[in-house]
Amino acid sequence: MADKQIVFTDQEQMEIEGIVIDKDKEEALKYLAKLLEAIKGHAGKACGTGPIK
After folding, report:
1. Integer Cα distance of 38 and 34 in angstroms
2. How many CA atoms lie within 13 A of 51 on its CB side?
3. CB 15 within 8 A of CB 28
4. Are the C-beta atoms of 16 and 8 separated by less than 8 Å?
5. CA 23 to CA 4: how far, in whole Å?
6. Which of 28, 39, 40, 44 has its CA 20 to 30 A from that of 2?
7. 10, 22 in Cβ contact below 8 A?
């Protein structure tokens, strides 16, 4: 599996800091879900949708 590097923009970093400072659990879970979706990656798709003949 390839290594991944996560880079946050200044705006994203400020958002994370705000969540941590406020100790907002609900907002932290929402942000984590969004982050995991971005990290998860997506399976590649082969050309065409039909079976191989």
Report:
1. 6
2. 1
3. no
4. yes
5. 28
6. 28
7. no
Per-residue pLDDT of the chain (53 residues; tens, 9 = 90+): 567 777 888 998 888 888 888 888 888 888 888 888 877 765 655 566 666 65
HSE at residue 36, side-chain half, CA atoms within 13 A, is 6
Please report how many Cα atoms fall inside a 13 Å half-sphere around the Cα of residue 17, on the Cβ side: 7
What pLDDT shows up at residue 46? 59
Residue type, 31: Y
Spell out the residues 6+ positions from residue 28 whose beta carbon is closer than 8 angstroms to its own: 19, 20
The predicted pLDDT at position 10 comes to: 93
Q: Specify the amino acid at residue 8.
A: F
Show the tokens assigned to 39: 């990290």
